[in-house]
């Protein structure tokens, strides 16, 4: 019997308090193993993982896990136990949220690239530092994979956004000299679900107009015309746009001057408010989690208000993106933790778009969650789909292809 030569890519997605990992078989295009180390740096920290085939979830509680200890544990215990041979891992793909002014496509990480990722930290201060930690820790854990680690950026997919939507109406030199412009984020997810949508409806993506809504803890929406991003709601940093779990999304910039000049807050307090204490958490005052908002919608005035604000803003963005395509879209796609699971967010948002012939099929909508993929609109509506995202697959493919190209 000829034994298949296994070619796995380890994907690492390091956030501030969580670290997602996946081992992808790039030939079969499937996840062998995946999981999350969550609540890092707290007493509740744990690692939850599952094998693709048996779908059985394992939870391991380890107090005060750091990024470093999580990566060590994932490699030395979970991967070793499940893969038999770590040499089947041929490369490591890192999700890096922001490529800054210069890094506009996937690259093998070396010292020069690492320096550029470091320089782009001000463009994604809550995200990029953790991507750097992930790279450094993976380098210790896999000394044999030196020069086999790839950065895949969430900003790359948005390179195609034209000037009229990527420029801010501020002095031009700020763009020219300092790169202050809209870069967007979640590009890996927007790319994956739009390509998947084209496959599902069996049409050439180059002939489709799609609006993709990635709604997780962070959230963004993208207008995709003929396979290319033409506008997106996140801005220079992932703070602009939709209302999010703890981020404010769009605000009047003068609020910042008011907090500073009148309320005498300092810059880091203001940053903390807008990035960690706003959004759903800011309005409910208790939770950043959409599940809380859904469960308390009818009994708590703040949860009710948070849900209404969230869906109102989302529907306004969707409607405004009809303009970018000069016609109604061929499909609207929901993805991310909220997009894939919140029946209520989808229903309220779709109802607000009724005047544009968006009609929710309530029965299908209510049973579409927990990883299910389905069309949740009526047959005579603009098609609306729920498509679970798979950012890890794109990251693994990019990593594998780039390493093959350079070998
Ligand atoms: P991240 O942006 O960190 O990757 P996710 O895409 O995993 O986040 O989304 C996390 C969010 O998804 C949670 O904060 C929660 O609000 C929402 N969510 C997860 N499951 C459900 C559910 N069953 N119903 C409603 N919302 C959910």
List the helices and strands and how they pair.
Layout: E1 8-14, E2 19-25, E3 30-38, E4 46-51, E5 57-61, H1 67-83, E6 89-96, E7 107-108, H2 111-119, H3 128-141, E8 149-153, H4 163-166, H5 172-178, H6 187-200, E9 209-215, E10 219-225, E11 228-232, H7 254-261, H8 267-276, H9 279-284, H10 290-295, H11 301-325, E12 331-335, H12 336-341, H13 343-352, H14 362-367, E13 374-375, E14 384-386, H15 391-406
Parallel strand pairs: 1-6, 6-8, 9-12, 12-14
Antiparallel strand pairs: 1-2, 2-3, 3-4, 4-5, 7-8, 9-10, 10-11, 13-14
The structure holds adenosine-5'-diphosphate.
Key phrases:
407 residues, alpha/beta, Nucleotidyltransferase, domain 5, 2 domains, six-stranded mixed beta sheet, 15 helices, 14 strands, 39% helix, binds adenosine-5'-diphosphate, nucleotide-binding
């Amino acid at each position: 019997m000829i034994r298949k030569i296994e070619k796995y890519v380890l994907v690492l997605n390091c956030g501030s308090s969580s670290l997602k990992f996946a081992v992808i078989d790039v030939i079969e295009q499937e996840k062998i193993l995946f999981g999350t180390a969550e609540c890092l740096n707290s007493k509740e920290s744990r690692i939850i993982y599952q094998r693709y085939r048996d779908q059985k979830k394992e939870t391991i509680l380890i107090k005060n896990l750091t990024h470093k200890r999580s990566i060590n544990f994932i490699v030395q215990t979970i991967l070793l136990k499940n893969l038999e041979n770590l040499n089947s891992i041929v490369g490591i793909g890192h999700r890096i949220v922001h490529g800054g002014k210069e890094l506009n496509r996937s690259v093998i990480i070396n010292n020069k690239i690492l320096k550029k990722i470091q320089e782009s930290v001000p463009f994604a201060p809550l995200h990029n530092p953790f991507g750097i930690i992930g790279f450094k820790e993976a380098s210790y854990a896999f000394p044999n994979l030196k020069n086999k680690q790839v950065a895949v950026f969430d900003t790359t997919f948005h390179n195609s956004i034209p000037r009229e939507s990527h420029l801010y109406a501020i002095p031009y030199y700020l763009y020219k000299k300092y790169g202050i412009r809209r870069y967007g984020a979640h590009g890996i997810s927007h790319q994956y679900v739009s390509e998947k949508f084209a496959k599902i409806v069996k049409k050439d993506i180059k002939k489709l107009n799609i609006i993709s809504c990635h709604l997780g803890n962070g959230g963004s929406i993208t207008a995709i015309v003929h396979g290319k991003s033409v506008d997106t709601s996140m801005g220079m940093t992932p703070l602009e746009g939709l209302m999010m779990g703890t981020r404010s999304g769009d605000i009047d910039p003068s609020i910042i001057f008011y907090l500073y000049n009148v309320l005498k807050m300092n810059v880091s307090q203001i940053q903390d408010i807008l990035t960690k204490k706003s959004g759903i958490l800011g309005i409910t005052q208790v939770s950043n989690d959409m599940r809380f908002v859904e469960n308390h919608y009818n009994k708590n005035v703040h949860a009710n208000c948070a849900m209404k604000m969230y869906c109102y803003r989302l529907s306004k963005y969707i409607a405004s993106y009809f303009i970018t395509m000069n016609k109604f879209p061929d499909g609207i796609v929901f993805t991310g933790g909220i997009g894939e699971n919140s029946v209520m967010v989808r229903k309220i948002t779709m109802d607000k778009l009724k005047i544009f012939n968006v009609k929710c099929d309530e029965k299908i909508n209510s049973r579409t969650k927990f990883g299910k993929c389905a069309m949740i609109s009526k047959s005579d509506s603009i098609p609306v789909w729920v498509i679970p995202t798979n950012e890890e697959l794109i990251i693994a493919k990019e990593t594998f292809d780039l390493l093959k190209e350079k070998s």
